[in-house]
């Protein structure tokens, strides 16, 4: 019986390579190079300068669109934009500004998180969404020692709405014994992005930035450790199930032509197979018995089986910049 279904898989930033590349038979992680971030970040009442490394590109660089922009908002009863997303062009400028901000202590005893979130959201709406950087991922980092606000000042409703398009990381500090504050901030944060200052907070936030930076185009499934847990660790692997009646060879070429660097899905591990199977099971186009093509075929005169294999390369020269290609290249 000829399988009727094809599953496509994308690993961005890779190219087809000969069989000598056996060592790369692993699934792509999201990346560990912080200089490759394409983010717009708003930091709410926080010391953010320590999160960035020497050589990281801040601001808008005409010759290098792979940059991060950073804004700073402080709040008490109201909120104040200390620096918008177009203010900083270097890590040195960011460090200088944040230390000067910390020296300006407010005399107000009231602190409403809603005000800070609202200012951060407005800043992203004005300078990130619906701009040339609209496809860049958005992150709001909130440092706070208390949770205050009810009614119109309750930050939860606003945070819930923001999290549809923005990731929120929260850091609770100097409140180790206040479980109520930590519990409320957990609701504000994107799942998995709620931290306390007794952790290695710089490492935790850098990891969160890398995870926010790693995503797939709309309509694609991004592989993660657990299909059931949407907040489990993500991989730099995008999957697209496609209904197609074809032979294996025709499917391979269809996949390659469907998207840059596309190829039939590999299943190197049990975890990967389980995830792929759940994608198939939850797609109404696939019927039992579940059947789909994978990227495994005979080679060397049918003497052995071999995966369609890819090798890592350092860049994608010659490919013009566009929103969709930026999304591909985020996973380099």
UniProtKB/TrEMBL annotation:
Region forming the signal peptide: 1-21
Domain of life where this protein originates: Eukaryota
Coiled coil: none
Claim: Signal is one of the keywords in the record: yes
CDD domains in UniProt: CLECT (cd00037)
Residues in VWFA domain copies: 44-212
SUPFAM superfamilies in the record: C-type lectin-like, vWA-like
Keyword field contains Signal: yes
Keyword terms: Signal
Pfam families in the cross-refs: VWA
Protein name (database record): VWFA domain-containing protein
Species name: Caenorhabditis briggsae
